[in-house]
Amino acid sequence: MPHTYVLLLSFIIIAAILSWIIPAGQFERVLVGEREIINPDSFAHVASNPQGVFDVLTSLPRGFARTQDISYFLFVTGGAFFILNKTGMIESALSRIVTSLKGKEAFVIPVIVLIMGLAGSTIGLSEETIVFIALGVSLARAIGYDSLIGVGMIGLGAGVGFTSGFMNPFSVGVAQSIAELPLFSGIELRLVLFIILWIVTSIYLVLYGRKVKSDLSNSIVYDEEMAARNSADYQDLNAADNISFTTKQKLIAVVFVGSFALIAYGVMSLGWFITEIGAVFIGMGLLSGFIYGMKADEIADYFIEGAKDMMYAALIVGLAQSLVIIMEDAMILDTMIHSLTGAISNLPAVLSAAGMYTVQIIINFFISSGSGQAAVTMPIMVPLADALDVTRQTAVLSYQLGNGFLDSIMPMSGILMAQLAIAGIPYKKWVKFSMPLMGIWLVIGLIFIIIAQLIGYGPF
Predict the structure, then answer these.
(1) Which CA distances in Å does 140 have to 85, 167, 245, 438, 449?
(2) Measured between alpha carbons, how far is 260 from 281 in angstroms, rounded to an integer?
(3) How would residue 120 be classed by pLDDT, with cut points 50, 70 and 90?
């Protein structure tokens, strides 16, 4: 497996080569309210715009420009968490948690997966998971697991919630509004799906965690774990029974919890996104540093140190977006979507529903944004569903599951790459760890699509 940068750049070059082979095409787009909607009957071939070497090169800075908000988010959260780590609050708090969980470590995994899943399914927790990765990895190591469990509890937990999306406004909400369905209708089946995915994911992580806990050499990331545990900054919280929780650290803990409470309120009530969340983290980092008694110069140095650690992840996010830019500029994206949807137009209803699911999975490789994929594909899938006697709610479910599952393994996902970069996990080792679970998720999704079509999942 090549370096992640090499892998993503290879995809960009392949997309540019395909722009010389695949005919260019375009759907007409109209604004309905604040949404850009595709007219599914308007596809027409247009003059090709093949991408050359210079186009590939310019796509890189354009990708970085398009994802500057995520890069900003990574830098400020990295800086803020580095300041927070230097106060020792996290280590002290985790040592208390570790002490209280002696003999009950297995309960940590399903509880955290449940919490992250509920957040993913209600407030659409996705990019925001990046800020929890360092905490998840620290906690996982402290109770005898490895960094894969830490990322799994946080990232896969949020993925379970975002994908099942029983009340996700960013995926299900957008798709249902385009399909003219009542908002969050059909929630009962999605709740059942959420519970099943939560149970399956928790069991998968617990079984792997037991192997690692019994013998660290069973860890897929054994070399990375040994390097991390031998570093000067590592502290074994299991051996840190004498770590005190000082008054200053308790005040910093209050700031920490209060910051996340403010973020939750802002996301749910004020429409906050990563810019506002990043601002809260800046404030949290500065306030924590001053409470601990750091000098202004110290805070600045620590912030820069933490931000530097995010450079790898920030560059990956930009590269992932450059791939989308190449396909958009070449105008081959609409052609690929049109061809994929046309391939299932003559199948029986149940197979058509399964075909929609498959098409959405494929499209997700090119459009990883949940609301973005809904805006592009649902205006096509809804009339197609009507023509094929597939309920619109089933079409939404096909989009929802096809859009969500593989986000937890695709190298084009900037969020995943940022999570792995923070945890120090090579992409190929994450694939080895998560691929079996992805297969299980996809099969569960297919079963639910078939059930939805057979029961006439509605209201229509």
Answers:
(1) 16, 29, 20, 21, 34
(2) 9
(3) confident
Q: How many Cα atoms are found within 13 Å in the side-chain-facing hemisphere of 144?
A: 18
Identify residue 106 by its one-letter amino acid code.
Answer: A
Cα separation of 271 and 73, whole Å? 16
pTM score above 0.90:
no
Print the SS3 string covering 177-204.
Answer: HHCCCCCCCCHHHHHHHHHHHHHHHHHH
Tokens coding 227: 């390097």
H-run or E-run covering 38: strand 35-38
Q: Which helix (H) or strand (E) holds 114?
A: helix 108-122
Task: Please choose, from the candidates 271, 261, 73, the residue with its C-alpha nearest in 3D space to the C-alpha of residue 173.
Answer: 271
| Average pLDDT rounded to a whole number, residues 360-386 | 73
- The pLDDT-based confidence of 276 (bands split at 50, 70, 90) is confident
CB contact at 8 A, 158 and 120: yes
- Predicted confidence (pLDDT) at residue 232 exceeds the cutoff of 70: no
Q: How confident is the model at residue 221, as a pLDDT? A: 94
Closest CA to 164 of 191, 183, 188, 185: 191
| Residue 58 neighbours by CB under 8 Å, 6+ apart | none
Please say whether the beta carbons of 317 and 414 come within 8 A: yes
C-alpha to C-alpha distance for 419 and 423, rounded to whole angstroms: 6
Phi, psi of 32 (to 5 degrees): -120, 105
Tokens of 433: 């760890």
Structure tokens at 130: 């990046």
Structure tokens at 201: 């994911």
Distance CA 167, CA 190 (A): 9
Contacts of 96 (CB under 8 A, 6+ apart): 245
Q: Report angle CA 163, 164, 168 to the nearest 5 degrees.
A: 80
Answer for the pair 409, 431: CB distance below 8 angstroms, yes or no.
yes
DSSP-derived letter for residue 372 is H
* Amino acid, res. 448: F
75: Cα separation from own chain's centroid: 18
Which two structure tokens, joined as six digits, stand for 38? 């595709």
Which residues, other chains included, contact 154 with Cβ-Cβ below 8 Å and sequence gap of 6+? 112, 116, 129, 132, 133, 135, 136, 419
**Residue 132: closest CA among 90, 98, 166, 171:** 90
The pair of three-digit structure tokens given for residue 121, joined into one six-digit string: 């399914």
- In angstroms, the CA 320 to CA 117 distance is 25
> Which residue is listed with tokens 């959405």?
360
